[in-house]
Sequence to fold (917 residues):
Amino acid sequence: MSQPLLEAAGIRRTFGHVQALKGADFKVYPGEIVALIGDNGAGKSTLVKILSGADRPDGGSLKVEGEEMRFSSPLDAQMHGIATVYQDLALAPDLSPAENLFLGREIIRPGALGRLGFLDRKAMQAQAVQQFAKLGMQLKSQRVAIASLSGGQRQSVAIARAAMWARKLVILDEPTAALGVVQTQRVLDLCKRVRDAGTSVVLISHNMPQVLEVADRVQVLRLGQTVADLQAGQSSVDDLVRAMTSGQAKETSP
Amino acid sequence: MSTSNETAIAPVETTEERMLRLITGGWIFFLLIALVAIFLILRPAQFGSAYNVQQLAINAAILLVLATGQTYVIITSGIDLSVGSVLVFASVVSAKIMLLLSGVDGTTYGTTAAGWDIIAIGIAAALVSGAAWGALNGFLIAVTRIQPLIVTLGTMGMALGGAQILSGGVDVRAMPELLVTQVGSGRLLGIPMLVILAAITVVIAGIVLHLTRFGLHVFAVGSNAEASRRSGIPTTARLIQVYAISGFMAGIAAVMANARFSTTTINGHAMDNLATISAVVLGGTSLFGGAGTVFGTVVGVFIPIILLNGFVILGIPPFWQTVAMGAVLILAVWIDQLKRRLRKRG
Amino acid sequence: MKTIVITTILTSTLLAASALGALAQDKGTVALVLGSSGSPFYQAMQCGAQAKAKELGLNLNVSAADQFAADAQIPVVNAVTAAGPQVAAIVPTDMQALLPPMRELSDRGTKVITVDQTIADAGFLKTQILTDNEAGGALAADQLAALVGKTGKVLVITQPPGSLAQDARASGFEKALATKYPNITYLGAQYQSNDPQRAAEIVTSTLSAHPDLAGIFSTNDQGAIGAITGLRQAGVVGKVKMVAYDAASAEVAALKNGEIQALIAQNPKLEGEVAMDVAARLIAGEAVKPITMTEIVAITGDHPEKADQYEYVANCM
Fold:
């Protein structure tokens, strides 16, 4: 079995009197889509914040490709290949898809012009087209402000951006929560293509059928602890719900 | 494994959408052309005379420089009400320093014999004091998070008050002769120096805004400051820089004003802030930030100037000019909103 | 999209339509550039000029910037220059800054006269229509001295230096105080730039520093209105004597109410009429005197009918 890309063991996190995480485990292997599910208050967002570098655990270990790691910030996590797309997408609505892809990482012209800060829009555009093509995304116009794209397309741009700069792992927080049926399907297809292109995906979702459809594995969090690690192909929605609510793993069939 | 057919992404834009984009983006330019055409047809010899064209350009020059700074500010979804006051402050500081260095009594009229070295120091003083007020604005807005409207309202009062304290409320009327004749009324290849200065400033500002990384950051911060911050763009620094640019422009404009009027104009420039904001908005820059062009601002500056000029030549009572300007401004904001709504629907 | 195009065309057509009215060009063309729009003094001047122009058969265009400031007025003067009238009557808002544009106007063949204010170098002007502002200031000093019993503290509220007329009023007042009324303590001049709010604040602060303030002289109507507000706020209306220049309607009302004790009135309507007279003579090629004086009168509260006579009424607006 290959080494996990990201391995969190026994993560503890307390806020004042509240123990949000009491020893949560999480594992992601290369080339897979893992779903993280749990009821409200199970500790999902806390765990995600820790995995993405926005927060630090009070206890437990975090390893990236076997190496013990403590992220100081989301930017730090990104440098180690882990990017997170939150629900607000963090996109600039007036900028084009390419400009959004390169937000904060703009390509500048070589030579003297570059030192003055001149942009190489052609290069950015070309690389953006490449990235979108790799992920099978079709946008109706490359140069418009992304505010004129649909919610699903905007989500796709955010995911494409994350996948571009974080080659190891992309964490998606409820990516389809605000989308309609067709757009949801597109985003889930995109997740699969991201995985196929070599980047693992962690999907946080409340939607059980969706999870089973797209994920390879499902890890269930309950009351701050990981209570189940199930293969999606061998589980049903009932199994997931039972794990979430009672902490019991799949019942062995009689 | 299916790879749903995507090797190339076709940038498809229907003709209808293209026309729409052009019209809503460029309508103000058509309005400018229409105005010029109308006035030319009605009064060709007067409106179209070389003299009039030059005066229009000269009258636009100072406001254009100010409005360029305002463009940057409004693109970050901010606003700078202090531009007129900072201009006045910078002009007083500049004039006083040049006067001091010329060793001339402050109550003189007319011009002094100061050389270019003293003038250079005077110019530096104007630029530095303008940029300083701007940086103060930027700091208060970006670091202490007070709203731009409030901050610049405050600095508007402070800068003007500062100018009045420094000058005792009395305009400095003794400017270096060289400044007034070479810059104020001087020409290069037949083009007024003031127009050349404005043109250079505007072109550089346009290049920086539309072609450099810094410029893209300005748009990004205005479009979504939080997203920019998370992407590693130094948003606080950018905001301070943008407001400093606006102040710096006011400094340039102050030098131009001193050269043009041969006196500081402490009681003037009271409406410059609103005039620049109108020009920027008319030009298509959105008050909500994230979008705009320097070219649009150029068009936006010329519209009220041409309107006033044409109205006076035609003998239309001046009140109509303000009425017309107000109507055009409302039209411009309405169209901006329309653009945004259409964009969302797509 | 379509709506926008149509609106643009409509706006432009409206502009054109309104402009067509001003196409008549065969009579003598005269331009009048006021100090600012929205001022009762200049509106009265405009009315007088327009009535006289009609009588004399002149084609008069009146224009003004919306602020009494050089940077606002110069574009208007430039436009008038481009229009090329035969005569231009201008109220210059700054005696130095307006020199180059007005000289240019004259160089291009327009005969230039100044009205009410003037410029530092009058060499190229055909005439200056003036009131004796210095005498007006001295008259104000006489009035105020009489009101305060020739003793006590007095304050002057005026425009910042740069407007010859205002400067002359203030200096005329000060000179008269110095020579004729030694027992009066002169607190000096405070500047408000056509800002009644500022004038009110000046008055209230002065009263805090000098509760025994005896009298105030305001060199224009905006200062007077503001000063009265200040006096009202402090509750000393009538106790502190007010003499104000100009007879705008608000001032006349204040005179009748006893808030102002004396007005020094000019006759802007007459100035406008004289300007048109001079313009007609210039167009006819006649010579005119370099300076034309118009009257100033003192009006006290016991002659309300005189106040009505000289009130700056803009009944043509």
